[in-house]
Backbone:
């Protein structure tokens, strides 16, 4: 009996081992350089998986180690990732052979989340093209400019909040946790500029909009577990119909948007916000009579599709913006010379304004601000890697018709943005915060396709100005930043302008000394948070 049990255990052990190693033949068979995978977790280190070291550090390390290879193989749990190290290849995948690499991998859509599978970032092929064409006009400069005042008002509320805290504590300085602060700011911007409602999350700390947003954004431990399980056994998770998000959490937004749309339609109200732009986009979509004959699948634009785009804008607007701003204030606090130069520029604009409110054209004139934000997005790109899925087999050729790389249908391609940004051959002294790298006279030193904070090609962040010559990635403008998302930039510039005009940012007792050391796991957020001290300028 004991022998039978032992034999069964042995068989079970062999089966489990076989299952754990089953996907790891891909790179060996395809001749792609890679490290030996470990059962179940592939090349992901346990330290990253258990949140001891940051994923981005591992990404940078592997890139440096295998830099001489154009493509490097990485088993992310059980998924083979083809990581691109060669800029020529990145250009081909992102732009020239885009038709083979149109889609992102469907991490969230695979959870059968109907809402998330309808948002632009998850849509595929012709459905994505149609939706992107429909939404792009909503992001033109003139339409976004109209949102400036709504955003600027939220920035002023953010400053008033700090002033009142200082008054209440009768103090000249105050230490604030910037992720929380900017989540509140980003929340109010989205509420106002996207959903058309006014909230002040600095004062009314637990308003319903804020609470609903937090519940959609912040993954619980259970959601993280579901993601890991999905990595290990996707078919089982799919078959079980396990959902990542609680659908009830989006109900609040649903009623908010649809009630607002109904009210506006009935009362003929026009407000320059995202709901209005999406209502227009929907109207234009429905008016389109011709759909390209070649398209096999068509996008729809029913109420759920509109809601999906709103929720997407909420998620990016909230999470990406608050991370980006928290890092920006951190770098300004740790780099006092940069902060002083930026303050000088702000002070000049203030003088020019002679007490009048800040305007969009004045903000756009601030060139040093552009350099600072460009450098921030180099050092801490919120989207630290990009992904594409190969839709048809392709042999990518270089200009001499030599094969650069061969990809097969369903291969997952990764572009390690942060590793390119931190490569000393691309950016000397990569760990230093040096906005001057982006000066007009230095821009030729930046190699094409090594700076990708907003992604690249037709699938890059929406709302960009087409200042890139797509085939060469050579800039036609003096500022890299202008190719980014203008709504995002407007938001960053406006709040930084107002904060620096009133306060100096200095390290406090709780400020993290070494940011990379403080990061853990897959998040780009330090475990010790973003504490920064604000000192009133009028007493300096
Ligand atoms: C500093 C802030 C931001 C950064 C760094 C950023 C970066 C990115 C990146 C890297 C991508 C993927 C690009 C690719 O795969 O090539 C992306 C996609 C996207 N972003 Fe942003 N983003 C920012 C802010 C925003 C904001 C505020 C919005 C909304 C108003 C937005 C809307 C989108 C959308 C809709 C997509 C999907 C585009 C598509 O799949 O066609 N982003 N963004």
Residues:
């Amino acid at each position: 009996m004991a022998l039978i049990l032992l034999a069964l255990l042995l068989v079970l052990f062999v089966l489990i081992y076989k299952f754990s190693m089953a996907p790891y033949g891909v790179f060996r068979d395809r001749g792609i350089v890679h490290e030996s995978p470990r059962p179940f977790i592939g090349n992901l280190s346990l330290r990253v998986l258990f949140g001891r070291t940051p994923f981005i550090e591992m990404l940078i390390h592997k890139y440096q180690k295998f830099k001489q290879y154009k493509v490097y193989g990485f088993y992310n749990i059980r998924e083979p990732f083809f990581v691109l190290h060669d800029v020529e290849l990145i250009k081909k995948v992102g732009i020239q052979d885009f038709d083979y690499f149109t889609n992102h991998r469907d991490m969230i859509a695979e959870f059968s989340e109907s809402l998330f599978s309808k948002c632009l970032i998850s849509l595929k092929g012709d459905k994505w093209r149609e939706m992107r064409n429909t939404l792009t006009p909503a992001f033109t400069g003139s339409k976004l400019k109209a949102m400036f005042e709504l955003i600027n008002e939220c920035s002023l509320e953010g400053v008033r909040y700090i002033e009142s805290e200082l008054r209440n504590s009768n103090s000249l300085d105050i230490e604030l946790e910037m992720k929380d602060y900017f989540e509140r700011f980003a929340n109010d911007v989205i509420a106002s500029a996207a959903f058309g409602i006014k909230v002040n999350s600095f004062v009314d700390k637990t308003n319903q909009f804020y609470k609903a947003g937090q519940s959609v954004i912040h993954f619980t431990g259970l959601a993280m577990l579901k993601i890991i399980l999905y990595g290990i056994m996707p078919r089982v998770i799919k078959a079980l119909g396990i959902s990542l998000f609680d659908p009830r959490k989006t109900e609040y937004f649903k009623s908010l948007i649809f009630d607002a749309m109904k009210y506006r339609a009935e009362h003929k109200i026009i407000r320059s916000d995202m709901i209005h732009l999406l209502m227009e986009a929907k109207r234009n979509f429905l008016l389109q009579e011709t759909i390209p004959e070649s398209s096999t699948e068509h996008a729809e634009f029913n109420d759920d599709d509109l809601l999906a785009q709103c929720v997407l804008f909420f998620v990016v607007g909230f999470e990406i913006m608050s991370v980006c701003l928290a890092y920006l204030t951190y770098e300004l606090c740790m780099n006092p010379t940069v902060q002083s130069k930026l303050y000088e520029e702000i002070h000049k604009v203030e003088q020019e304004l002679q007490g009048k409110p800040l305007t969009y054209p004045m903000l756009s004139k601030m060139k040093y601000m552009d350099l600072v934000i460009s450098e921030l997005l180099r050092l801490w790109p919120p989207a630290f890697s990009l992904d594409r899925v190969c839709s048809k087999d392709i042999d990518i050729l270089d200009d001499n018709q030599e094969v650069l790389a061969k990809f097969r249908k369903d291969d997952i391609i990764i572009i390690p943005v942060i590793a390119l940004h931190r490569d000393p051959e691309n950016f000397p002294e990569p760990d230093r915060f040096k906005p001057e790298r982006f000066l007009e006279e230095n821009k030729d030193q930046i190699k094409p396709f090594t700076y990708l904070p907003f992604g690249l090609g037709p699938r890059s962040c929406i709302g960009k100005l087409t200042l890139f010559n797509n085939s060469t990635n050579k800039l036609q403008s003096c500022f890299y930043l202008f190719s980014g998302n203008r709504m995002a930039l407007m938001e960053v510039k406006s709040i930084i302008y107002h904060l620096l005009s009133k306060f100096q940012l200095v390290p406090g007792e709780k400020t993290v000394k070494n940011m990379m050391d403080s990061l853990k796991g897959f998040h780009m957020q330090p475990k010790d948070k973003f504490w920064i001290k604000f000192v009133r300028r009028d007493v300096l």
